[in-house]
Design goal:
The protein has about 130 residues and is mostly helical. The protein has two helices and no strands.
């Protein structure tokens, strides 16, 4: 059997207590008309949010302002995309490191060959003397 709750038998549960100081400013409540007037007049409101600027933003990028309101499917797609990008970048780093090692080895072999040629030339000169 269901119990019907009315204003007479409603018992509120313990709510949340906030310990951080409030960010609201007393006397700073505006109507929509006042907000529009201040905006068109170029008057900045004391809002604590900082805009997010991206140098290489495109229309396909994630809107970071709305990231908290994404559903689970969108979050999973973004996570998979980020994971794939991480794997690709890590592979690119490994490839660059391997190429650098090859170059270093080939330079050291060239240097070793030059040293060996000099030594054999020095040995020939000493034997001729």
């Amino acid at each position: 059997m269901r119990k019907i709750i009315t204003k007479d038998n409603f018992k509120p549960e313990k709510g949340q207590t906030f310990k951080l100081p409030s960010k609201t400013i007393k006397g700073e409540s505006y109507t929509i008309q006042e907000l529009i007037e201040k905006h068109t007049a170029g008057i900045r409101l004391p809002i604590d949010r900082q805009p997010i600027y991206m140098d290489d933003a495109s229309h396909e990028d994630i809107d970071l302002e709305k990231a908290y309101t994404l559903d689970n499917v969108d979050k999973a797609e973004i996570k998979a995309s980020a994971k794939q990008m991480q794997i690709t970048l890590e592979q690119s780093i490994k490839d660059v490191q391997k190429e650098k090692k090859r170059q270093d080895l080939s330079e050291s072999k060239t240097t070793d060959h030059d040293d060996t040629d000099k030594r054999s030339a020095d040995t020939k000169e000493q034997s001729v003397d």
